[in-house]
Specification:
The protein is mostly helical and 649 residues long. It has 27 helices and four strands. The strands form two sheets. It has a two-stranded antiparallel sheet. It has a two-stranded antiparallel sheet with strand order 2-3. The longest helix is centred in the last third of the chain and has 29 residues.
């Protein structure tokens, strides 16, 4: 009997048993721990300090308000003194933020960091933890190769050397960064857990080698690494989608009705947590889970659906309580309320001292979420029954309809999924060419061209689909990813492309689905299983060559920011074209050995190159980094320095 079953049965368990059970529930095994530590070590390299978009001022001010014991912002410390930044809303003369699902968790980190800052340098402490993560990765890699002592020695050597070197160049971390660091800790840990969930899911589908490759793809060859330390919702919502995929699969894989019901109920828990962070994305996740879960479940009796409904209701409690505390309407999240435009607060904020946002607000979601009936839905803060204005069914339906209609616009499809560049439809002041398409953000997705070929084969091969309740766990998961992708496109596509989307961030969970879709392709799994060494070599050589070549091209060509980003976009699309050609030919012929390791390795290496150059050279807005060595390196490779001017101080 598991520890969970014993606890539910009222039995006692020891502390060691509880600790072991928690460790296994989170990480699964030692490889999962290595993936977790490796992700933190990787994102730490480009962990920059600065407000990348103006809505992050709102999050930091909301965090300080929560720490002071209330949800509303009284004294905006970051951004303009008026506190009028994207994401701030006004209710009864009080100013609130949003993304409280992230803010409230981050407040716990801030409460831990603030007393530490009084007795030690938080920057040095976090650098030390990063070095320990490097040591843990060395040990984990050594265990993988059955050489744990050598791995531990290598980890200690590398981690210790980097930590000591950091001490020589470290400067005190200003306490003004603590709220931002707290927010970044939440997103960075979410990215690490996202990689672990991906590893565990794919490992259950296939084996540890494929699972590890999927996790590495997500971290090193997708935009997950770009957004991991940027305190926005995208990494967190992607984590909940991956968690829903994992528990949905476990519910279909379970051999007993009780275990299946438990994982099935847990799948709906992620829905409520996602809604707490972003209500619309939580709604889409609910639709996708319900649309796939109910028709494919083996049991749908009251004893099966009761726990599911209870789990969903409990998961929505934070969402409902937050809404009631702010607006009095349990179904009106801050995104539905009236935007705050100033004239209420007069704080101590000074945006010039806390980093800029590259001229873009970056705070809006390209969805019509304005209040539907003026001030009627926000006039009181006491509990009231949900109003019709908080359930704009007609507007939501119209939004999805418009998005699906836009999918038939070939120009828009190309700009979102293939090549973005400049967008004539955007105002000139917001049309900076810093945006990448989905394919340029993750060129390895070119391999998905194999799916239409497989579909044609299935169609003419006479393969019949069984009844949904007879579907395999993998097929249920396939259906979920398709339904969720369609829901996400329906939510956002009508407003894309838009400004400051960088890696089409509004569709960020698609990259998680993309990593899953890649490993579901037999030809991709064949390369990982039989040509893993060649694949790793092609990847490493690409990164080693491309990083200095990219920086050199920026310096020699005198490329400004937009030009530098679009140069990468062209290179990434070229790499993706190679993946497309290989996947198409290979899916037809079945010979994945020819060109596969090279094509996939170059595509993955191209993304890693961009993550490094973007993090260290293109997008640091203040010149400050969490790691002292990254700051030192960033001072020398910042694109302003490459162009002969001074980088930001």
């Amino acid at each position: 009997m598991s520890v969970a079953d014993r606890l539910l049965a009222g039995e006692t368990v020891t502390v060691d048993e509880l600790r072991t059970a928690t460790w296994r529930a989170v990480f699964g095994d030692r490889v999962g721990v290595t993936v977790f530590l490796g992700t933190l070590a990787w994102v730490g390299l480009t962990w920059r300090l600065g407000f990348f978009s103006n809505d992050q001022y709102t999050f930091a001010n909301a965090l300080l308000a929560v720490v002071d014991g209330h949800l509303h912002i009284v004294d905006p410390v970051y951004g303009p003194p008026s506190g009028a930044t994207p994401g701030a809303v006004l209710v009864d003369g009080r100013v609130y933020g949003r993304n409280y699902g992230v803010v409230l968790v981050s407040a716990l980190w801030y409460v831990l960091l603030r007393p530490l800052a009084a007795v030690a340098d938080v920057g040095v402490l976090l650098t030390g933890l990063w070095a320990l993560a490097v040591v843990g990765v060395g040990r984990g890699v050594g265990r993988w190769h059955d050489r744990p002592r050598d791995g531990l020695l290598a980890g200690l050597t590398v981690g210790g050397t980097l930590f000591v070197a950091s001490l020589f160049v470290a400067t005190p971390l200003s306490t003004r960064w603590l709220p931002l660091v707290a927010l970044q800790l939440t997103t960075a840990l979410s990215a690490a857990l996202l990689a672990v969930v991906c590893y565990r899911l794919v490992t259950r589908l296939y084996d540890r080698r494929i699972g590890t490759a999927a996790a590495l793809t997500l971290v090193l060859a997708s935009p997950v690494g770009f957004w991991a330390t940027l305190p926005k919702r995208h990494t967190v919502t992607a984590l909940f989608v991956a968690a829903a995929m994992y528990t949905l699969y476990r519910s279909r894989e379970a051999s007993t009705r009780r275990t299946a019901t438990r994982f099935r109920a847990l799948t709906y828990v992620w829905v409520g947590l996602a809604a707490w962070v972003h209500a619309a994305e939580g709604f889409v996740l609910l639709l996708a889970v319900a649309a796939v879960d109910l028709p494919t479940a083996r049991w749908n009796g009251p004893r099966d659906l009761g726990p599911v409904v209870a789990a969903l209701a409990l998961s929505l409690v934070p969402f409902v309580l937050t809404n009631v505390a702010i607006s009095g309407d349990p179904l009106a999240p801050p995104r539905l309320l009236d935007a705050y435009t100033g004239d209420v607060l007069s704080g101590t904020g000074d945006g010039a001292t806390t980093g800029g946002a590259n001229g873009d607000s970056g705070g809006g979601t390209p969805v019509d979420t304005a209040g539907a009936s003026g001030g009627d839905t926000t006039s009181g803060r006491g509990f009231r029954l949900p109003s019709l204005a908080s359930l704009p069914a007609g507007r939501v339906l119209g939004q999805f309809t418009a998005s699906y209609a836009a999918l038939f616009d070939p120009v828009r499809l190309v700009r979102v999924f293939v090549r973005t560049g400049y967008v004539p439809a955007l105002p000139p002041g917001k049309d900076a060419a810093i945006n990448l398409s989905v394919l340029a953000s993750m060129p390895a997705l070119g391999a998905l061209v194999g799916y239409p070929i497989l579909a044609v084969r299935r169609r003419f091969g006479g393969v019949e689909w069984p009844h949904p309740r007879a579907w395999s766990p993998a097929r249920v998961l396939d259906a979920f990813t398709v339904v969720y992708a369609l829901g996400l496109l329906g939510l956002f596509f009508r407003a894309l492309p838009t400004y400051h989307m960088l890696t089409v961030r509004y569709l960020h969970p698609l990259y998680v689905l993309g990593a899953y879709w890649l490993v579901r392709l037999p030809v991709v799994r064949g390369v990982v299983t039989e040509n893993g060494r060649s694949l790793a070599t092609a990847y490493a050589v690409t990164v080693a060559v491309a990083v200095p070549a990219y920086l050199g091209a920026i310096a020699v060509g005198g490329l400004v920011l937009g030009e530098a980003v679009q140069l990468y976009a062209l290179a990434a699309l070229t790499a993706s074209a190679g993946v497309v050609a290989w996947a198409a030919v290979t899916t037809v012929t079945g010979d994945y050995r020819r060109g596969g390791p090279f094509a996939l390795g170059v595509a993955a290496g191209a993304t890693t190159t961009y993550l490094l150059v973007a993090g260290l050279s293109l997008f640091p807005v203040t010149g400050e980094f969490l790691l002292p060595l990254s700051r030192l390196l960033g001072e020398h490779v910042h694109y302003a320095r490459l162009l002969g001017s001074s980088p930001p101080a």
